[in-house]
User: What shape does this take?
Amino acid sequence: MIRTQIQIEPAQERAIRRFARREGISLAEAVRRCIDKALASESETGAEERYRAALALVGSLRDPAGARDVASNHDAYLDEALG
Assistant: This one.
């Protein structure tokens, strides 16, 4: 483990101590868990944003060749693309 020092607001200190008592864990463990949760949430949010961006593209691009049967023939197109 790495020892570090941080500064937090009094309300944050009260809240993290309450959390630690409620969970029956040390203050240090409570801080580690909160950090892990925040970092996991951040990566999930990034994945959600990428998913939303990908969904926004669905149906927004036109095929210059005019293919209109992709939904019904997607397996054939995928097979052709992966050759």
Summary: The chain has a mean pLDDT of 85.
